[in-house]
Amino acid sequence: MTDLKPNIFIGSSGAGYEYATKVKECLTGIADCTLWQDPGVWEPNSSTFDNLLRMVSFFDFGIFVATADDLTLTKDDKIVIEPRDNVILEMALFLGALGKHKSFLLVEDGVKLPSDFKGIYMPRFKRVDNTTIETACKEFSAKIEEHYKLGHLSLYPTTALAIGYYKNFIAGLVDSVQNTKVLKINNLKFTKFKLRVIMPKDLKGLIREKADQFYKRHGFIENTMQTKFRKHPAWFHIDEHNAPQAIMYDMPSTLTGVDDAIEMILQKGFQGRTQLQEVIEQRELNNFRRVLQIQIDRSPFAQEVVEIVDEF
């Protein structure tokens, strides 16, 4: 499974669109960037607000360009330059859904922001100096590359599922592998074990059924491995020429239901899978894999025993 690039939504006012396109040019190398005027962004027969809620469920990051658009008379009779209201609203939606590490505001010099942003550092740019946009994008790029690799909680459950899968299954199995003396299978003795976690190609159907088909298709043998709290069923690839080493396989059935969660968030009222749903599913499979690898990398024992591979 190829790790997908992060998806970034770039918003601005109509007057600021020129600078939003420059942000896209700067970040295209590290991400799939979508401008708010790009084709296919706005779903027909849906309100602007509903479209924005849908975008939040799809994109990994949001960048919004606040330009000098409106003159506002304050209560103490001062005139200030402010960004368009919709830019702040969209930023707030992404900020609330994705968090402060995944939502960014690029602000034109001289623009007054709402008081709630007071004291928060946000990169500034000058219209007459493109290097200021490039500098800001380098800051965004560093944060995007850093946080895309981390296991953030999101609207979808794959981060929590990966952590639970590791703690409730992998960790106990790794511990058992270190202490198991002999396991007899088909009159052969095995004392060394590896575990390969199989990432399914997609989330269509029940993962448990998909896993059973995978095990049987490859002729794996079912047995049990004693973990800390109980015996756990496991599927083995047995090769007498590799004895005393056996390879265990597991396709995480805990992924079952992620597709249902995605459908609920997308508020689908029909059967079948949309292109948007399939893209989100692949993103969540990638996220599960990344978070699980983070857990594995914390344990030298797990690093030695566990490998994540694609369904084959």
Description:
This protein is α/β, with parallel strands linked by helices and 312 residues long. Helix content is 40%, strand content 22%. It is built from 9 helices and 14 strands. It has a 5-stranded parallel beta sheet, sandwiched between helices. It has a 5-stranded mixed beta sheet with strand order 11-12-13-10-14, sandwiched between helices. It is elongated and about 90 Å long. It starts with 6 loop residues before the first strand and ends with a strand.
In a few lines, what is going on in this structure?
The chain is an alpha/beta fold and 312 residues long.
| N-to-C SSE string, H for helix and E for strand | EHEHEEEHEEHHEEEHEEEHHHE
Secondary structure category? alpha/beta
> Strand share of the residues?
15-25%
The proportion of residues forming helix, as a percent range, comes to 40-55%
Number of strands: 14
Main sheet attributes: strand count, strand direction, barrel closure: 5 strands, parallel
Strand order of the largest sheet: 2-1-3-6-7
User: How much is the average pLDDT?
Assistant: 87
As an assembly, this protein is single chain
Low-confidence stretches: none
Label the overall shape: elongated
Radius of gyration: 25 Å
Terminal Cα span = 11 Å
Number of separate helices:
9
